[in-house]
Amino acid sequence: MTTAIQFDNENQSNAIRQDLFQTEPLALRTFTPSQAVLAKSAGCFHWTPEGRRLYDFTSGVLVANLGHNPRRWMKRFSEYLGWKPEHITGEGEGDYFEAVTLTAYNAVTEIETEASKRLIANIQSFKGGNRCDKVIWAASGSEAVQKALWACLHRDPERDIILATRYGFHGKKGLAGAVTGSETDPDRDPHVKFISFPRTECDDITKCDQPLDTNKYRNELEELWNAYGDRINCLITEPYLGGGGSYHPQVEYHQVLQDFCREHDIMLVLDEVQANFGRTGCMYAFEKYQIEPDFVVLGKGLGNGIPVAATVGRSDVISCLKYGEASDTWSANPVSSASVLATLDEFENTDVMENTQKLSKIYIEGLQSLKETGVIAKVRGEGMVFGIECAELGGKTSQEVAIEFVKACYLGEEGGDGIHLLGALAGNVLRVSPPMTMTEEQARDSIALLQRLCGKLAIELQAATASA
């Protein structure tokens, strides 16, 4: 790309996009055709600098599960930090005010230990969480993945092979990057071996109740055991392939992985960075997929917008790490601890999960109807995280249709709302993951808008073919 993304009648947004283009590399973002400029946000909405309102179908890539700037969450977050209104306005005497410190490196605050106890208790309150009794905090999902793998590798340095599910996404840094993607990607770590993840068997939501033939997956695992035996240390997988195209497998698949790990004393690491805190329709995906992992990796929705992540797992394995081997500047900082506590407060004391179930039905029915336009070929997903796979249409490839769909949703209806989507996963799959606190009326209105925009795009693409 040699010029900044620009749209007609968006002078303020275009100026900001131009500044961005001149001051930051393209590599800092994945490609999103709209390059939305967000001036303010509340609940399930963003506003552009020009004042256009957008339904947020991304939750900031599955982060703002409770919506943007929720008042009750913000009140609790501020209370945990000891912030008062005058601390924000700058009123009062002196240059400083007394509150919880913003940084406590190598020290500890009460809210850190409270966050650890509350998170462990919350996980263990759900079936499948019993093995998770120690928290390693991290500042990002990829760091948390790396710390989980470090702990497993320290348990027995002679077991140096990691199994990872092919086309998974666990991050871009260090070991997290090494277990992402597949063996055909460049710069592969020879200690990582990839295994298959169901895709064709679950490439549309209508297949989710069909039984899965697990023989292929069992055989593949046994072949790896025969090849590497006791060298296999751990197995890491996502509950569903997120960045790989939103494939949500049948429960049987994860049970095969768990059985294999138990039989050979291999650590099972479930990367729930995308899925945690309700996205699959359960608080944690291990509950949805009926397994009991040795480690659960958390992030994104864990802090509802504050950067925080964690690995929660077996204390007997984590104890293999010595002083400093999982430390860094930002992990377990008081701001992130306060955000975790405020988020737990909301999930434990409100009906957000019940609301998620209601929203899920509205979205499944609405997204399925998009197939009638010819723009969308397949729909996948569960809870409040979906992938809609674009079709070839109007002489355009499915990848080109996905780009046009994101633009059409962003521009919305004249004088009305638009919809904020991110660039496609795996080339042609658009993720739909609005905040889980939107009202049923907002859900129906947003789906109706999506249907109108999708229908209009179908007509435009077909008309372009007819006139060509």
Automatic annotation (TrEMBL):
<dbReference type="InterPro" id="IPR050103">
    <property type="entry name" value="Class-III_PLP-dep_AT"/>
</dbReference>
<dbReference type="InterPro" id="IPR015421">
    <property type="entry name" value="PyrdxlP-dep_Trfase_major"/>
</dbReference>
<keyword id="KW-0663">Pyridoxal phosphate</keyword>
<dbReference type="InterPro" id="IPR015422">
    <property type="entry name" value="PyrdxlP-dep_Trfase_small"/>
</dbReference>
<dbReference type="InterPro" id="IPR015424">
    <property type="entry name" value="PyrdxlP-dep_Trfase"/>
</dbReference>
<dbReference type="InterPro" id="IPR005814">
    <property type="entry name" value="Aminotrans_3"/>
</dbReference>
<dbReference type="GO" id="GO:0042802">
    <property type="term" value="F:identical protein binding"/>
</dbReference>
<dbReference type="GO" id="GO:0030170">
    <property type="term" value="F:pyridoxal phosphate binding"/>
</dbReference>
<dbReference type="GO" id="GO:0047589">
    <property type="term" value="F:5-aminovalerate transaminase activity"/>
</dbReference>
<comment type="similarity">
    <text>Belongs to the class-III pyridoxal-phosphate-dependent aminotransferase family.</text>
</comment>
<protein>
    <submittedName>
        <fullName>5-aminovalerate aminotransferase DavT</fullName>
        <ecNumber>2.6.1.48</ecNumber>
    </submittedName>
</protein>
<keyword id="KW-0808">Transferase</keyword>
<dbReference type="Pfam" id="PF00202">
    <property type="entry name" value="Aminotran_3"/>
</dbReference>
<keyword id="KW-0032">Aminotransferase</keyword>
